[in-house]
Sequence to fold (343 residues):
Amino acid sequence: MVLDTGSQLSWIQCQKKSPRKPPTTTFDPSLSTTFSNLPCNSPLCMPRNPDFTLPTSCENNLCHYSYFYADGTLADGNLVTDKFTLSPSQTTHPLVLGCTNSSGEAQGILGMNLGRLSFPSQARIKKFSYCVPLRQGTPRITPIGTFYLGKNPNSHTFKYVKLLSFPQIQSMPNFDPLAYTLPMTGIMIAGKKLSIPVSVFRPDAGGSGQTMIDSGTQYTFLVDEAYSKVREKVVSVAGRRLKPGYVHGGSLDMCFDGNSIEIGRLIGDMIFQFENGVDILINKERVLDDVGGGVHCIGIGRSSLLGTSSNIVGNFHQQNRWVEFDLVRRKVGFGAAKCGTSL
Fold:
């Protein structure tokens, strides 16, 4: 499953296992004694339920959901309930999740945002943390990361920022009230702070400009005023090496041919700055991502190309560091780690 701090509904691939086929990572509901379909008369199956981007519906006495994500992908299936076993001595009460038999790439999503249907909300988790491992090579060879529910033994080394809340604009169309909103203050490249007003990283009256951390989004995305300053700096030091007219995945347009180490040295280290002296340092060796075909791109895109008006710190810039979410004290902690060996 993909751990996603940017969405709330958890869902899994549900398929009955065949003894004649090799084992799969899908879930067979018939093997669970606590599995149950959510009935159509459940309040969650009402057409005007705000927890879903499209209205739920009743089909063949099953509650059907459809859920759109920011990148335009769609997850749909039936709402069900089941218990989660967290340890030999700890099992949750029945939690609501989605059950799909689509043939999509992901085996499922573990929704971890602040919504009432998210996994931490339903399971009454007060604190969780993860460590995203480095992605290496193309195709990706991804070592196993680490995920804690509850106390992290490394938390004494973390530096924390308070989550921001904006009750006056909760219902604005461009604001996500269920996201983890961070107090970003600036960006540094090669030791120099870019001239980006702090207000660019805060939501305006319509909700645009919110800065959120999202483990389910691969790259980082910035609104135009911030992105243009980053691009201006990159062009000034490595513009002659840019791949003209090239846009990777419809969203990354600072891409290069040639030696990525050399180009990274031209650009220098990058730092995302937050309140309370918290920094996310991206070493010059990790500024570029290998997107295949000998092309390397800076892992930052323009938010408008993603179809959003928010700043999003994606998982590319969360690699090799602890990220902890304290839901009681409403704060997020960051700490250095080597995720393949972080236990």
About this structure: The CA atoms of residues 254 and 297 lie 6 Å apart. The chain has four helices and 26 strands. The first strand starts at residue 2 and ends at 4.
